[in-house]
Amino acid sequence: NLKTQLEKFNDKAFTTKEFDKILNHLYKGGVYQKALTLRDRFQLELEDGTSFYVRFFDQDSASNNIWQVTNQVTQEGTYVNRYDVTLLVNGLPLVHIELKRRGLELKEAFNQLGRYQKHSFWANGGIYQFTQIFVISNGVETKYLANNKNSSFKQTTYWAKENNDKITDLTEFSKEFLTPNRLTDVIGKYIVINTDKQL
To answer: Is 16 helix (H, G, I), strand (E, B) or coil?
Structure first.
């Protein structure tokens, strides 16, 4: 799927060897390096000897990106984990949503993300370390946070309306926050990559 989506996004077909080079580039580094990679271009040497600059994300135009939703993706690392919902952008998992049933503490969803980061986000070349935003919800309470290796529950925040009323309901939050235009702005313009701590 990643190869197919990157080819569509770049309007370019890649040979197996060329895509292997792209994967080698994508697999480098942890959360910090992958955040930089997402926002940069990769100079790929094609088999015919020419170069092509591979893009991974268009932070200026949501409509240029290719959006997909997956659920119950299974990934095996130290343990087998099944992720609730993932939003893929150009084949990369940029938004992860962890859902708990009503009545459960929101912190349980946050703690589940910690287990994923410890046990499986790094598997398969660390492709899930490309996640830029985590969303946690029990249906009636919903919060989000940016990905970093030292995240804490204190970093979670509510999305709010223009009048600063919190949006806590998952359905309403999804309509306001989980849209291509909003997510492109949040990922491309409002996430600060901390170069000092490289989190």
So the answer is: helix
Strand segments (E) across the chain: 41-45, 51-55, 67-76, 80-89, 92-99, 133-137, 142-146, 159-160, 166-167
Q: Which of these, 14, 16, 36, lies nearest to 194 by C-alpha position?
A: 36
What are the φ and ψ backbone dihedral angles of 52, each rounded to 5 degrees? -140, 135
Phi then psi for residue 30, to 5 deg, are -100, -150
pLDDT tens digits, 23-71: 999 999 888 898 999 999 999 999 999 999 999 999 999 999 999 999 8
Query: What is the C-alpha separation between 83 and 189, in angstroms, rounded?
Result: 27
Question: What's the whole-model pTM score?
Answer: 0.90
